[in-house]
Amino acid sequence: xxxxxxxxxxxxxxxxxxxxxxxxxxxxxxxxxxxxxxxxxxxxxxxxxxxxxxxxxxxxxxxxxxxxxxxxxxxxxxxxxxxxxxxxxxxxxxxxxxxxxxxxxxxxxxxxxxxxxxxxxxxxxxxxxxxxx
Length: 133
Description:
Layout (H helix, E strand, L loop, with lengths): L1 H29 L9 H8 L3 H25 L3 H22 L2 H25 L6
Helix pairs in contact: 2-3, 3-4
């Protein structure tokens, strides 16, 4: 009886020990990679925004995210329509942000957007499977 109990505890410890690293790995994998998204704090640091600009941009981004969420729910299953709606929302957000910036900040913002586009392009290249001849 004692031997069975020790065997049971050993098996429990081994399987539990194996499950912990897998749980940690799956939790790490479940976290989305958002490194290509900008945050308002990133913009503040990169563009040298004032506190007033930062708050206005924070409001614009929040409203934009809410619109994207609505569009996603509305156009779910219609990928082309959803894509067009999200692009329109992004363009609107960009125009509203640009309207708040000084000329110098606009130049920095455009450079920042080019860098983000290059990062996205690199990520897409890495995700694409290599074709074999």
